[in-house]
Amino acid sequence: MIMSLGMARRLSRPLRALSRAAQQLKDGDLTQQVEPEGKDEIGQLGRVFNHLAKSLQRQEQFRRKLTSDLAHELRTPLTNLQTHIEALLDGVLTPTQENLSSIHEEILRLGRLVSSLEKLTRAEAGVLNLKREHRDLRELVEKMTCQFQPLFIDKGVKLTISLPRGPVDISLDADKISQVIGNLLSNALKFTPQGGEVEVAARKGDREVRISVKDSGAGIPERDIPFIFERFFRGEDGNGGGSNGSGIGLTIVRELTEAHGGKIDVKSQRNRGAEFTIRLPLPL
Ligand SMILES: Nc1ncnc2c1ncn2[C@@H]1O[C@H](COP(=O)(O)OP(=O)(O)OP(=O)(O)O)[C@@H](O)[C@H]1O
Ligand SMILES: [Mg+2]
């Protein structure tokens, strides 16, 4: 009797701690962690709880950062619009073609920001809901390259493609990987001046497939490289196209690649082009 009482107490202690922590989590304290004891079911439950609390905390931090980044992004175009319009109303500024088109430019910038945000939200929802199917990667790369070819011809940038002879079968979400390739191609086009070259390549290794997009354009300064995948990061003006983007393309590329268990690398130097490589794992 005494032994079983002691045992019951030993069993119920971690459960009580868990229940307390769960209650506090429910009340909004996301820093809660318990000390999981042992390898039994209760210990396992404790570890699952800690994992859950950590991921809730991460999501909350992500949400806060998104809100503050967004407020920061919106502030500049809104302030510019406000000052311009107030100056027009006060008669300090005359509504010339030039002044109106600068206001129009700010409105377009806001529009682009909103549509990039919609894309980001869709990509994030897609990460949780990948629709994988077996595909030959060559087809996808070919399709995206064909879609972009007219834009490259228009700008006078040569677009070439290099594919292996045999099929590159892989399980992936075709829409999402097409979006990844599309975003990389659109950057390559934007940052490569007329007369330049872009090469898209797919290669198959033993354990992974690699898709690379290499351009001969403006390149990325070394100090920018750690930040280019961050939401809203844009390089300075003067690299050919930085000012008219929202800095969201590469964030989406990285999220979708990682959702497939893959990785993205970049090699680049100022004025010496850039090469982005996506590596997607093959099943063992
Ligand atoms: N191929 C490239 N060559 C040179 N710089 C690049 C290249 N790709 C990306 N960058 C740099 O990384 C930054 C972030 O790229 P990202 O695609 O996320 O944003 P963006 O192209 O500026 O805007 P968005 O893609 O949202 O329209 C760019 O502003 C640019 O400075
Ligand atoms: Mg981009």
List its traits:
binds adenosine-5'-triphosphate; 15% strand; 6 helices; 284 residues; Heat Shock Protein 90; Helix Hairpins; binds magnesium ion; 7 strands
Short structural summary:
This protein folds into three domains: 2-59; 69-127, Orthogonal Bundle (Helix Hairpins); 135-281, 2-Layer Sandwich (Heat Shock Protein 90). Helices cover 54% and strands 15% of the residues. It has helices spanning 2-26, 41-89, 97-127, 137-155, 174-191, 249-259, and strands at 133-136, 158-162, 169-172, 197-204, 208-215, 263-268, 274-281.
| Beta content | 15-25%
Quantity of strands, as a count: 7
CATH topological fold name of the largest domain: Heat Shock Protein 90
Q: Which class of secondary structure composition applies to the elements?
A: alpha+beta
Model description:
The chain is α+β, with helices and mostly antiparallel strands and 284 residues long. It folds into three domains: 58 residues; 59 residues, Signal transduction histidine kinase, dimerisation/phosphotransfer (DHp) domain (Helix Hairpins); 147 residues, Heat Shock Protein 90. The protein contains six helices and seven strands; from the N terminus they run αααβαββαββαββ. It has a five-stranded mixed beta sheet. It has a two-stranded antiparallel sheet with strand order 1-3. A hairpin with a 3-residue loop joins strand 4 and strand 5. The longest helix is centred in the N-terminal third of the chain and has 49 residues. Bound molecules: adenosine-5'-triphosphate and magnesium ion. The site of adenosine-5'-triphosphate has 23 residues, from helix 5 and helix 6.
